[in-house]
Amino acid sequence: MNVVRNLVQSLNRRRLRSAADLVLAGLIPTDRADAVDRAAGTLPIALTPDVAQLIDARDPDDPIARQFIPDAREAAWQPDERADPIGDGAHQAVKCIIHRYPDRALLTPLLTCPVYCRFCFRREQVGAGALNETELDAALDYIRDRDEIWEVILSGGDPLALSDRRLDRIIGALDAIGHVEVIRIHSRVPAIDPGRITAALATLLKRDTPVYVVLHCNHARELTAEARAAIARLVDGGIPMLSQTVLLKGVNDDVAVMEALMRALVRCRVKPYYLHHPDLARGTGHFRATLAAGQTLMRRLRGRLSGIAQPTYVLDIPGGFGKTPVGPGYLEVRGDGAYLVRDWQGRQHCYRDSVQPIEPPAPNC
Q1: DSSP conformation letters of 312-362
Q2: Is 184 considered catalytic here?
Q3: Catalytic one among 113, 217, 268, 365?
Q4: 122 is catalytic
Q5: What is the pLDDT of residues 212-257, one digit of tens each?
Q6: In the structure, what pLDDT confidence band is assigned to residue 9 with cuts at 50, 70 and 90?
Q7: Residue 350 in contact with residue 130, Cβ under 8 Å?
């Protein structure tokens, strides 16, 4: 018994990387191990101790487990799902540079993560490791040679999984490029591995070129005391923070759950930025709500949350055509400068464009 207890305690201090690890940590029953192993065939298992400790193994619908523990439904691919759901390949300029928009370039310096989200849209690319020096130099040269690139986004994989030395090399090189005026880092690390966010890291990120950190967070329970302290180290160090969330069925597709998350983020001084409709990654159909359901949720949030807590609901159009807002509409054109406007409670109002005093429009516009 003591041997087993010691093994479980050891597992709780390191990343869990197999179904056997999940069984020993008490996160799945033994009879589920084979199904979990099969589901992990296209995306590795990885949970940090911080994530593992959040999971309530007694709850079959636990929203944290749902995000990180493989599900047998991952083997069920739907006809419209794709290996490259947002069309990165169509815009790859050089290795690990995606240049989709004229003024922005995406740099993926590594394709590994401390945890693997089961809904990952790069699930068939992650695990490929980091760029070597030659590849990184080529990526940086591409950015140097194009004056139109105003912003560089570091994504992956998770850029904050890099060592301080490697991250310093990349951030320093970008900071030295005159036409790069914004650097953005997308990361889950402040929530899933908060010990990685040290004062030294916050200092490293503070540059003449502003560095924004965009936190990927899908449920308020992810914002533990340790995560909040990690976020505070960044914000207090002068690093502005935004958030991105994926709308996930069974995790956060409830208005009260989403409201709690947005309030918690703002309380941490993180501005909600994007709410992503889930991408058409293969084996992720069980996570996808409909666009209509997402619009209904956003409409309900409008009256419940301050403007600073409202994310923009976006769809990354399959095939590489970029993100577009897909939130609910509140304005209907009636012609001759007249509009029908709906408020947050669904009530209808008439509005008319004019620079001159006019008679009030008819109630039906």
Answers
A1: EEEEEETTTTEEEE-PPP-EEEEETTEEEEE-TTS-EEEEE--SS--PPPP
A2: no
A3: 113
A4: yes
A5: 999 999 999 999 999 999 999 999 999 999 999 999 999 999 999 9
A6: very low
A7: no
Q: Which of 96, 117, 217, 365 is catalytic?
A: 117
Phi, psi of 264 (to 5 degrees): -65, -40
pLDDT of residue 194: 98
Residue 249 annotated among the catalytic residues of the structure: no
Known active-site residue 14: no
Q: How far is CA 252 from the centre of its chain?
A: 13
> What pLDDT does residue 112 have?
92
Is residue 365 part of the annotated active site? The answer reads no
- Name the token pair of 85: 């759901």
274 strand-pairing partners: 244, 312
Q: Quick check: is 273 catalytic?
A: no
Nearest to 264 by CA among 218, 230, 330: 218
Contacts of 64 (CB under 8 A, 6+ apart): 51, 54, 55, 56, 219, 221, 222
R_g (Cα) of the chain, nearest Å: 22
Two tokens, residue 229: 């302290």
Q: Which is catalytic among the residues 120, 217, 268, 365? A: 120
- Domains, the chain, in order of start with CATH, read 2-70 (no CATH), 88-325 (3.20.20.70), 330-365 (no CATH)
Question: How does pLDDT run across 139-175, given as a tens digit for each residue?
Answer: 999 999 999 999 999 998 999 999 999 999 999 999 9
Task: Tell me which of 95, 101, 334, 339 is the catalytic residue.
Answer: 101
